[in-house]
Amino acid sequence: MGSIATTRGDSGQTGLAGGIRVSKASLRVETYGNVDELISTLGFARSICEDAAIAEFTRNVQRELFKIGSALATPPGSSKPQVPVEAEMVERLTAEVHRLEAIDGMLSDWTVAGAHTAAAAFDMARTVCRRAERGVVRLAEAGEPVLPTILGYLNRLSDLLWLFARKLELGAGVSGSLRAETGRAGNRWSRAW
Predict the structure, then answer these.
(1) Confidence at residue 142, expressed as pLDDT on a 0 to 100 scale
(2) Which residues make Cβ contacts (< 8 Å) with residue 41, sequence separation at least 6?
């Protein structure tokens, strides 16, 4: 087995799927790099999450994000076939969003992160997810082909991560509600930007 230190990237270039070399500052590299950061951020959140169901769902999401990262790292003209990102992946997230929204007592208003450690980690992951989503939009707007299911997945995942954080707070008996002190709530589900 070869070394991880190949030195091929010392000039500021990296290889995409299929061997195409590009700048490490390219929009495509930044886009799949954001997804890579999201995978790691979710790993931290999962590592401190005491809710077994949320932790297991998160692990599955991390695996799916590897597929998304691979799809983003495969440019047009690559000798490697495009990795599919199935609509069923988005549908699973949507179903989990609806399941969590139906739980009695779930906060549906703006929040201030930090009322619960693991919830705060999922709130952080949500912001990284939104950055990854914005990167995919920039890539598409630059004229690069992007599977539409990738945008749907990241958009839905951001909502789900917000709900995971609220579910953890609910289970711990704490609330990060921004407006609790005023007694005025905003629109239902006005929170996940």
Answers:
(1) 95
(2) 121, 124, 125, 128
Q: DSSP for the chain?
A: ---S---GGGGSEEEPTTS-EEETTSHHHHHHHHHHHHHHHHHHHHHT---HHHHHHHHHHHHHHHHHHHHHT--TT-SSPPPP--HHHHHHHHHHHHHHHTSTT---S-B-S-SSHHHHHHHHHHHHHHHHHHHHHHHHHTT----HHHHHHHHHHHHHHHHHHHHHHHHHT---BSSTTTT---STT----
- Between strands 13-15 and 21-23, the pairing is antiparallel
Q: Write the pLDDT tens digit of every residue in 35-65.
A: 999 999 999 999 999 999 999 999 999 999 9
Identify the burial level of 115 via C-beta atoms within 10 angstroms of its C-beta, where 0-12 means exposed, 13-18 middle and 19 or more buried: buried
Cα gap 58→115, rounded to integer Å: 20
Q: Does pLDDT of 105 surpass 70?
A: yes
Q: How far is CA 154 from the centre of its chain?
A: 6
Please check whether residue 119 is in contact with residue 171, taking contact to mean a CB–CB distance below 8 angstroms.
no
Average per-residue pLDDT for the chain: 85
Q: Are 74 and 83 in contact (CB under 8 A)?
A: yes
Q: How many CA atoms lie within 13 A of 115 on its CB side?
A: 18
